[in-house]
Design a protein that fits this description.
Blueprint: H1 19-26, H2 31-34, E1 36-40, E2 50-55, E3 58-62, E4 67-69, H3 81-93
Antiparallel strand pairs: 1-2, 2-3, 3-4
Amino acid sequence: RRVLKRVSMPNGEVFSMGLEEAKSLLSSSDPLSTMAFKTFPPDPVTGRKVVLKNGPFGPYVTDGITNAALPKGENVNKVDDFTAYRLLEKKRDGKKKNEG
């Protein structure tokens, strides 16, 4: 039985990536880094690794538990660790869906 795995490739590498590089990308054991555009130092609040990814609905930051979308128009190349931590904190402090 085959298992399909989806990974994002860094911009511009779709035509230049070789078979071995592709295999390496697919075999990555760390799900947080498989599709990461940027990796930041651990979040000072949670201590978890923070990464910037591109998902089906656009770029977002995650610490593996909390996901926070980047605001529309935000340049992913200009996102720094402070911005990533702030987005995650804002998301964690927001209302939960179950709360009135």
